[in-house]
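Subject: Predicted fold for Carbohydrate kinase, 491 residues

User T.R. writes:
Posting the sequence so we have a shared reference for the thread.
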Amino acid sequence: MRDLVIGIDGGTGGVRAYVFDAHGQVLGHGDAPYETQYPASGWAQQRPDDWWQAVCSGVRAAMEQAAVAPQRIAALCAATTSCTVLACAKSGEALDDAILWMDVRASKEAADIEALTGQTLSAELFVCKALWLLRNRPELCERADVLCEYQDYLNHRLTGEWCFSVNTACNWGYNKRKGDFERDFYRTVGLGAVLPKLPSRAVSAGERVGMLSPEAAQELGLDTDVMVVQGGIDSSIGMLGMGVAAPGPVALMTGSSNLAMAVTQEPMFGRGDEINLGPDFLVDGYYTSFRGQVSTGSILRWFKREFCRDLGDDAFRELDRLAAQVPPGSGGLTVLDYWQGNRVPHNDPDVRGLIYGLSMNTPREAVFRAVMEGVAYGTDDLLRAFTEKGFPLNAVCISGGTTRSDIFLQIHADVSGVPFLVTCDYSVALGCGICAARAAGMYDTLPQAAAAMVRTQKTVQPNAQNHTRYLALAERYRSLYRAIRGWVHGE
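User M.O. replies:
I've generated the C-alpha cells; pasting them so everyone works from the same file.
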C-alpha cells in the first residue's frame, strides 16, 4: 500500500528530506549540506551536482530512519530556492555553476530594466540575472538549450522531463491565467533570445510532473512507481507547511533569508513595492503578497564561522545562552543586516552591513545579540509593510531556522509586538508533503491537506516592556541607512 510521501527542501545551505504519513507525522528525516562559493562581493554560486548528491543522501537517510519499504512511497515533491539560475543542455547537464538567489551581481541590469520599463526589480530576480548572463556570458547562453532554476533542474533530474513551476515562474513574468510570459517585457529589456530557452510546460504546485526515472530511483533507493509532484519556491511551499493556505495570518519563513507572506484576495503591493505571486500561483483564486529580507540566518552563520571557532559545534547554543543575559539594545550596538544588500524597504543591492557602537568593553555575546536584533528590525520592516497597506497583523506564523532559538524567537516577538505561532522548523518539507499527498489522492485540495497535516507547537508572546524599548531602538536602526546612504553611493 502506497500511503506515505516524501518532502524535499532544497535550501541555501543544503537538503532536508522527510518521510511523512497522511497526517503530517514525521517518520524519518535526513539532512545533507552543500557549499556556497562567493567569488566576488555580492556574488554567490553553487554546484548543481552538489544539489543532486545531497538530495540522494537526504532521501536515503530519511528512508533508513523511517525503516519503511520503498513500495509504501506514493509520491515525492521538492521545493527549492527561487531565482537560483543556471544554464543547461537539453540532456539536463548543467553547463556552469548556478547563480544563487542571493547573488546581486545584476544590479546594473535591474537599473537598466527600471529605466526601460519603469518597473523597480530586485537584482536577485530571474530576469535580471538572465540579462546579466546574456551580456556577460554570451557564449554560455549560446551553448545552453535551457535556462532554468534549481527547481526545474531537480525535477528534470528526477524524471527526465523538462517543465517549469508555475509558482516559481512568478519571477519570470509568467501569467497563469493567460498561460504565457510577458513577451513584450522580454523584448523591451533585450531578453527576446531567452524566451525559446525557457521550459515550455507549466506545472502548478501539487500537480504531477512525471514518474521517477529508473536512474533516479536507483540513486534514491526508491522504485519507479513513485510520482514526482511539482513544488515551487521553498518559502512559498513553506506557507502550506505553516497552515497558511487562505487569507489570515502572515507567514514568516526564516532561514538564510526571511520572507513575510500572506494569502490575499487582491495584490497588496504594486510593481514599485514588491512582487505579488499571482493570481493562482499557489492557491487557486488568490494572490500571495510578500516582502523579502536578503540576509538573516546567513549573517549568524557568518558570525559563528569567523568569530566563534573556539566554541565548536555547540557555538549557537552557547551564544544563545550568553546573549540571553545581555539586555535589549545590546549595550548601545546597532546592526544593519545588509550583508548582501537590502531588498525591503530600500531595494539597494549595493549597500552592505554595518555594526555601530563597538567599544573596548564590547563582549562577543553583545555583538551576537545585536546581530539578532538587527535581523529582527529588518523583519519588522517586512511586517510593517503589510500593516501600512491595511493588512491586520494579529499574529505571525513562523517556521525555519529561527524557531530553533528561544532567544531569537523572543527578540522577534518583542520587536514586532505580536504573538509568534511556531509550527515546525521543517515547514518547507511539510509543504512538499502536502503537495505530494494532494497529488496522490489523499486529499482533494491543497488547503484541505494543509488543514489536516499542520499543527501549532507553541506560541511566543511579546514582552510589553521590551517592546516599548525596541520601538525606539528600531527607529534608530532605520535612521542609520538614511545617514549613510549618500556616503555609500558617493552622493
